[in-house]
């Protein structure tokens, strides 16, 4: 409700206005009356109001001087003057003070009602824009504090409907919802007590809201990075065992729900996962994986995403089974990439000609043995760079390279940047 202060030295005027004018029709409430300017000024020092309806001629300070003082401390307050005089100087001064209107007594109820209707709409528009500014990126912490200082304890929440003292439309994870502020707890998707630092809390709130919508009801505490579990999954992928991959996906679901990473990170992981599977199938065209990636990026829930991934995997493995010898090579690479591997040594183990094996690998994966080994080593290096504080040299040796310079060269070729730049950029995104 918008707060109204009535100021008039005639008791019957203030009481008559309270009785005769249905202020509640315009979401207004008379919160106080005063019979002189000094009393009114004292009241607003501790009780801000939205509208002051005042007489001009009163004992002591007149209404125009009172308005001038009030505007210095409450610049957004609206004023309506009710006066028994229509002298030019009074009207001129009132206009200079930018009062909402100047009415001559006796007041016409319909005329006053029209003014209150207009002011109510102005209040709503002004209040909406002021409160909406709280959620704008360019609003400073100090400005938010100022906007909230008169509201008191408040909750920040998200809901499927507009509610509370203020609501604003918001879009998250494919859902059109409302962000709201309320003096009390409301039925909501997600809700917290709103407290300083406000800008930081708003960012955390939006992130956790997205997680809540995407993952469901979960723990929202910050967890460790999730890269450490991907390498075992990659080893399963290259073996081509669809049933084991699906079992790993169930485990992956538990790990992700426990850690609740950013939605974008989860989607990136799933895209990387499906792309690794995709590279095992030479018959697939680029359009096939492009459409899958677009679908993943557009997913609105984690369950929806997992179901889609499972269906795609089942479809892929139903269409094609990798050559057993190539699958064996990929298994060795995934398991022993840290070792000094060679196609010649592996071909001896498989009792197959190394040249022919190399041809099979190229046909099935569209990559050479050396390229596959480098891809696996660099993938492992990326995980170590993100999940540990090991030096670049230690990472180089840990993934199977003996020459740091060569490691830098291969890493830059496959990742488009140096290992140091990759680690720095990835850390900045967290």
TrEMBL record:
Entry's Gene Ontology molecular function annotations: DNA-binding transcription factor activity; sequence-specific DNA binding
Q: Where in the cell is it found?
A: Cytoplasm
| TM annotation in the entry | none
Top-level division of the source organism's lineage: Bacteria
Instruction: Give me the Gene Ontology terms describing cellular component.
Output: cytoplasm
Q: Which residues carry this modification: 4-aspartylphosphate?
A: 55
- The protein here is known as Response regulator
- Give the HTH araC/xylS-type domain ranges: 327-425
Gene3D superfamilies named in the record: 3.40.50.2300, Homeodomain-like (1.10.10.60)
| Segments forming domain Response regulatory | 3-120
Could you state one GO biological process linked to this protein? phosphorelay signal transduction system
User: Per its UniProt record, what CDD domains does this chain match?
Assistant: REC_YesN-like
Q: Main site of residence?
A: cytoplasm
Q: Which organism is it from?
A: Streptococcus intermedius
* Keywords for this protein: Cytoplasm, DNA-binding, Phosphoprotein, Transcription, Transcription regulation, Two-component regulatory system
Q: Name one Pfam family in it.
A: Response_reg
